[in-house]
Amino acid sequence: MELNITNETENLLFDRREIYGNIKANSTPSRIEVTKALAEKFSTSEENIKIKKIEGKFGAQTFDVEANIYTSKENKDKVEIKKKKDEKVAEPANEATPTPEEKPVIETAVPEERIEAPMEEALKEEAKENAEEKSQEESRE
């Protein structure tokens, strides 16, 4: 993955740098990969970077990137709207997910025997109806 910066502007009102650039890659880079590349290039923390857009064209291996680099995480949180896809990036991957043993077991109010019985009865009735129809067709012939 190769990152080229095409335009960089300083926005003093929001205390950030607005970055526009291109990335050459075989497939669309993830937000995490772009954030890491920008953090290395600008020597800043990944928490201070907000990826605005990663856009590619069909068949091309270059992707346009827009990002904002803030001076601190507090400034970023004041200005930027939080979205679910950004929260997923910020969450640590090592959080424990509940195992099936820890999940609550929901018991059904109706025993399984009573659930299966009507189905079996319906199948038996259908088989009887089919047999009656066949016998009526045979008697007509």
Can you characterise this structure?
The chain has 141 residues and is α+β, with helices and mostly antiparallel strands. The chain has 2 domains: 2-90, Alpha-Beta Plaits, CATH 3.30.70.330; 107-141. 39% of the residues lie in helices and 26% in strands. It has 4 helices and 4 strands. It has helices at residues 31-42, 73-79, 84-90, 112-140; strands at 2-11, 16-24, 49-56, 62-70. It has a 4-stranded antiparallel β-sheet with strand order 1-2-4-3. The mean pLDDT is 82.
Concise structural overview:
Helix content is 39%, strand content 26%.
Gross morphology: elongated
Radius of gyration based on Cα positions: 31 Å
- Would you tell me the overall average pLDDT? 82
Q: Could you say how many structural domains there are in total?
A: 2
Q: Please identify, by name, the CATH architecture of the largest domain.
A: 2-Layer Sandwich
Number of strands: 4
The total of helices stands at 4
Indicate the low-confidence ranges by residue numbers. Answer: none
The topology string of helices and strands comes to: EEHEEHHH
What's the level 1 CATH class of the largest domain? Answer: Alpha Beta
Secondary-structure blueprint of this entry?
Blueprint: E1 2-11, E2 16-24, H1 31-42, E3 49-56, E4 62-70, H2 73-79, H3 84-90, H4 112-140
Antiparallel strand pairs: 1-2, 2-4, 3-4
Relevant terms:
elongated, 141 residues, 39% helix, Alpha-Beta Plaits, 4 helices, 4-stranded antiparallel β-sheet
